[in-house]
Amino acid sequence: MHIREELQITKPLEPGHEVALALLLTREYVARLFDEGLYEPEGISDQQFNVLRILKGGPKDGYLVKDIRCRMIYRFADVPRLVNRLEDRGLVKRCENPADRRGSRVQITPKGLALEAKMFGRHNGLCQQVDRCLSVEERDTLLSLLERLRNDHRAQLEAIQNP
């Protein structure tokens, strides 16, 4: 279904508006797919899951909060609050940072590893569903176009933030 039909827009859209709406609506569908199929059944948010995945793939001694933030999908997340919530559930722990006592390192716990492992199969299945209607060539083209958009917008944001 075309974006204008789906959103019941009767007037023509400017190309930039149409692309923005298509991206936002697609993001909403994918987010709902993951929320309902993966995160909600485990009582965890997408951002908390992202932190668990980052810690699972990281060094044994964990990451500093600032290092976690750099690896997050959602860059404006309140990482200390996310870590606090995960720590309250026993999924991560904070450890002293020998290199700098002002900051602690965050590590995934065995309970956090078990939850991530439990969710891994469903996560993998949902990821495979995201692009199942695309050919290999279409997938590669989409990834290339999205990368170009991200690079352009990243440069625009940096110019705004660092005049």
Overview of the structural elements:
This protein is mainly alpha-helical. It is built from seven helices and three strands, in the order αααβααββαα. Strands 1-3-2 form a three-stranded antiparallel beta sheet. α2 (15-42) crosses α6. The longest helix has 28 residues, at 15-42. The mean pLDDT is 92.
List the helices and strands in order.
HHHEHHEEHH
Q: The biggest beta sheet, please?
A: 3 strands, antiparallel
The Rg value, from CA coordinates, equals: 19 Å
Percent range for β-strand residues: 5-15%
Sheet with the most strands: spatial strand order: 1-3-2
- The total strand number stands at 3
Low-confidence stretches: none
The rough form would be described as: globular
Sequence-ordered SSE layout with sheet pairings:
Blueprint: H1 3-6, H2 15-42, H3 46-56, E1 63-64, H4 65-71, H5 79-88, E2 92-96, E3 104-108, H6 110-130, H7 136-161
Antiparallel strand pairs: 1-3, 2-3
Quick structural overview:
With 163 residues, this protein is mainly α.
